Automatic annotation (TrEMBL):
<dbReference type="InterPro" id="IPR043429">
    <property type="entry name" value="ArtM/GltK/GlnP/TcyL/YhdX-like"/>
</dbReference>
<dbReference type="Pfam" id="PF00528">
    <property type="entry name" value="BPD_transp_1"/>
</dbReference>
<keyword id="KW-0813">Transport</keyword>
<dbReference type="InterPro" id="IPR010065">
    <property type="entry name" value="AA_ABC_transptr_permease_3TM"/>
</dbReference>
<feature type="transmembrane region" description="Helical">
    <location>
        <begin position="20"/>
        <end position="46"/>
    </location>
</feature>
<keyword id="KW-0029">Amino-acid transport</keyword>
<feature type="transmembrane region" description="Helical">
    <location>
        <begin position="58"/>
        <end position="78"/>
    </location>
</feature>
<keyword id="KW-1003">Cell membrane</keyword>
<feature type="transmembrane region" description="Helical">
    <location>
        <begin position="187"/>
        <end position="207"/>
    </location>
</feature>
<feature type="domain" description="ABC transmembrane type-1">
    <location>
        <begin position="20"/>
        <end position="208"/>
    </location>
</feature>
<dbReference type="InterPro" id="IPR000515">
    <property type="entry name" value="MetI-like"/>
</dbReference>
<protein>
    <submittedName>
        <fullName>Amino acid ABC transporter permease</fullName>
    </submittedName>
</protein>
<keyword id="KW-1133">Transmembrane helix</keyword>
<dbReference type="InterPro" id="IPR035906">
    <property type="entry name" value="MetI-like_sf"/>
</dbReference>
<comment type="similarity">
    <text>Belongs to the binding-protein-dependent transport system permease family. HisMQ subfamily.</text>
</comment>
<keyword id="KW-0472">Membrane</keyword>
<feature type="transmembrane region" description="Helical">
    <location>
        <begin position="84"/>
        <end position="103"/>
    </location>
</feature>
Length: 226
């Protein structure tokens, strides 16, 4: 068996375990929390009082205008100087959540704005409150628009978690770096890590296509019922 193939087979369990233990949980938690934060931020920007709107805009402006790696460094290496100590995983989770929240808020805000005003009027005419109209009428229709870009955000997040290696989170990429440090075979190990990321992204892209098809059918039924 070629040396490079044996090395890849020997390192595969370690890399996969790092992905299962750190990369996947970090991705799922960050996306779930970030999506919640993004929804709250989008609703704030569309419907809240002006001071809250300005605060939400400032948050989105700062996060979208600075590199994710710098944000992670500020949280993990910078905050201890003011007495806030976080372990590496928590710092990464906060950083990714804030980042996903800012970008997803713009997607959700645009999706909500795309729903015709007549849908609001129709919901109110049936006696719904604002919250009921949002939950039962507006968000289901907005989700049809938001799903494709949010899916892309999720796939990008899977790859972005590799940046957590810079703040010592022992996820998939840092595990590859540690193996490289002992084997001195960077090309083989980094290609292997890239292939694992590629496999994860390919699976998610397939799921995204199926999800978009499902929401497309849902949107078609809505159009037929209007």
């Amino acid at each position: 068996m070629p040396h490079w193939l044996q090395l890849m087979l020997d390192s595969l369990p370690t890399l996969l375990w790092a992905g299962v233990k750190f990369t996947i949980p970090l991705t799922l938690l960050s996306f779930a929390l970030g999506l919640t934060l993004g929804l709250l931020t989008a609703v704030t920007r569309l419907f809240a009082a002006k001071p809250l709107v300005l605060l939400a805009r400032f948050y989105v402006w700062v996060i979208r205008g600075t590199p994710l790696l710098v944000q992670l460094f500020v949280i993990f290496y910078g905050l201890p100087s003011v007495g806030i100590l976080l372990d590496a995983f928590s710092a990464a989770l906060i950083g990714f959540t804030l980042n996903v929240g800012a970008y997803s808020s713009e997607i959700i805000r645009a999706a909500i704005s795309s729903v015709p005003k007549g849908q609001w009027e129709a919901a109110y005419s049936t006696g719904m409150t604002w919250g009921q109209a949002m939950r039962r009428t507006i968000l289901p229709q907005a989700s049809r628009v938001a799903v494709p870009p949010l899916s892309n955000t999720f796939i990008s997040l899977v790859k972005d978690t590799s940046l957590a290696a810079a703040i010592t989170v022992p996820e998939l990429f840092q595990s590859a770096q540690r193996i490289v440090a002992t084997t001195y075979e960077p090309l083989i190990l980094y290609i292997e890590a890239a292939l694992i990321y590629l496999a994860l992204s390919s699976v998610l892209s397939h799921l995204q296509s199926r999800l978009e098809t499902r929401f497309g059918r849902y949107g078609g039924m809505l159009e037929a019922n209007r």
